[in-house]
UniProtKB/TrEMBL annotation, chains A, B:
InterPro entries to which the protein is assigned, alphabetical: NMN_biosyn, NUDIX_hydrolase-like_dom_sf, WH-like_DNA-bd_sf, WH_DNA-bd_sf, WHD_NrtR
Organism: Methylobacterium platani
Transmembrane intervals: none
Name of this chain's protein: NrtR DNA-binding winged helix domain-containing protein
Domain NrtR DNA-binding winged helix residues, every copy: 233-293
Amino acid sequence: MDEAEPSAAAPLVGLAAAILAATLDEPRVLTVPVAGQPAGRGEGLPAGPLEPAHPTLERGLRAWVERQTGQSLGYVEQLYTFGDRDRRRDGRDEGGQHALSVAYLALVREARPAADATWQSWYRYFPYEDRRAGRPPALDAVVARLEAWAEEAASPAEGRRRGDRIGLTFGAAGGWNEERVLERYELLFEAGLVPEAGAADSLAGQAMAFDHRRMLATALGRLRGKIKYRPVVFELMPPAFTLGQLQRVVEALSGVLLHKQNFRRLVAQQGLVEETESVTAETGGRPARLMRFRREVLLERPAPGLRLPAGRAG
Amino acid sequence: MDEAEPSAAAPLVGLAAAILAATLDEPRVLTVPVAGQPAGRGEGLPAGPLEPAHPTLERGLRAWVERQTGQSLGYVEQLYTFGDRDRRRDGRDEGGQHALSVAYLALVREARPAADATWQSWYRYFPYEDRRAGRPPALDAVVARLEAWAEEAASPAEGRRRGDRIGLTFGAAGGWNEERVLERYELLFEAGLVPEAGAADSLAGQAMAFDHRRMLATALGRLRGKIKYRPVVFELMPPAFTLGQLQRVVEALSGVLLHKQNFRRLVAQQGLVEETESVTAETGGRPARLMRFRREVLLERPAPGLRLPAGRAG
DNA sequence: TCAAAAGTGTTATCCTTACACCCATGT
DNA sequence: ACATGGGTGTAAGGATAACACTTTTGA
């Protein structure tokens, strides 16, 4: 990297965290109130500027999160650096100054809200991403609007491109790919269907401050992909859990239902978990054996994860 | 993101690009000379500071690359933002000022060097990553040194952890995983076996300026992973090519040899390519049919790529 | 005629998927 | 008794990996 003197227009660098958890079969994200935003956009991710006192980016992030929410972070992973100048298009002119934001994904075990931070379901912000109860009702309306947007393209070629993207991301062709959360959000953004892009209603989900919903979409997509080849789900689980609980968490994250028998077999024969001696007698039915994550799997398998068995019924 | 006033210690933000190509069966990276570095570290990636005139990060990157190398970029993807303050540990004290660098991966079709930029083989910087001619000779010496480093750990527990990491990344357990380029480099760095970390020799590969070799390792790992589920190889190929050429490029990128027959079948039945009418009569043997990338595959398959058939012989 | 690379066919094996069924507990 | 969730077995189908073999050119 070439050396640069700090100039009057040195960029502002922010740190933001999508902190995810799963409790009571519902996937959650930790949000904080954000002042000075347009109506309906007062929710945001924990965030703050990078300061000289921060030894590293990640340590700075942990400091901000702890200060704003009281939550201490375990697993943390860098997601993406958002840096377009027009991030600020909704705010005042910065006179050519850049505003970067380095976004992180964090996975935590427990949901204990602190200060004025609150846990919210992911699907508050992305209602069309939850297919556990079948095709979500919001989806048809959303796709219809997208298709209208494709119709009104300037050229037929552009219209075809838009149509292709809609089919690809919203599943007309080749089925639903649960990982394409960001692509779906960006399509909605481009089509002007989200409040962040000027839409009047929240049909396509609750808005967030700044570009925080884009960050959250990036985080969900990354996590949905990653559970398939890294045992990151266990960062969200208690030390001991039943296979049923594990399945419901994976379903909550991915937004699709899985085939029960195959899920169990997969988990078992991959060596991802091992039995404990105890069982639990929870809600109805036969008591279930409690399992724990088998840490050794990291040394045995090149890509230990939960390839989703794609099944329909429970 | 919270608002921050630009302070005296506003961070410096740099942009850097790992520009990759594949010519003559050799994977290449575009490098530029870097002045003011310690001996043996005068090679670097095209890079420059983010400037107020740059509309976006990516546009800034393209501008710097074009100015420094004359190369215009096609496919560009953000890799990672490196931001530890101690990036500068080899240089002077910055008085608490951060120096971030946003690294990008770029794939280009042709290798036409310009100015004082030069194309170099990847394996100049990571000799142990090339297994096309069998186990590379450098590898044994490198692993031996790593194991000595594990021996001299402060505690037995730490020694075991180090041993596990060596086995995992360098393939004692579960075979060689060609994607773990960064993990291998970081292990070598921690063990002090690379010049960037103070080593006297270049047994583990040619050093680079700043943390550019870490960026390059990130890029190679990402590309090696991505060819398996996205048709990015074709960004490196000419418009028409033979299946043999395609295979040799994939082998060059991944550093392992593939099973010929299965590779061809895979490429064909995945619908990744289609025949053209022409054939080519190149170096020895029967003339081969020229193929081209089938763009429609993007609409048909959820994850079109080249899962490597893992074969030994050609 | 032989080397070298292109290209085709076949088979054994493993993994995925789907279906059917039994088990243990609370009400 | 029966609803509910836990848990096991097995068979069909498709993808993968390994093998052997033919074709077409240039030297």
